[in-house]
Amino acid sequence: MTLQPLPPTVQDEGPTTRFVYHILRTADEPLSRREIANATGTPDRSVRNAIQNLIDAGEAERVANPTATRTPLYRLSPAGKE
């Protein structure tokens, strides 16, 4: 497996943010925070901070969850996919 280089906005982030970015990059569909935490083995609080870092950098976005309106889903933004 070859990892693609990180975008400049993510390169200087901490390891959890970079790991969450790679999880979102390889996901076939938007993921909940719990799914991301389970995939990374990282505490929920760390995942929450990492997701917010990615959103602030314009690399990820929050989307509505059609089956559980109180549980948002996350995916890479169009900028994050480039």
Automatic annotation (TrEMBL):
The keyword Cytoplasm does not apply. InterPro entries: WH-like_DNA-bd_sf (IPR036388), WH_DNA-bd_sf (IPR036390). Residues 59-82 are annotated as: Disordered. One of its GO terms (molecular function) is DNA binding. Coiled coil: none annotated. The keyword Cell membrane does not apply. Keywords: DNA-binding. This is Winged helix DNA-binding domain. The lineage of its organism: Archaea, Methanobacteriati, Methanobacteriota, Stenosarchaea group, Halobacteria.
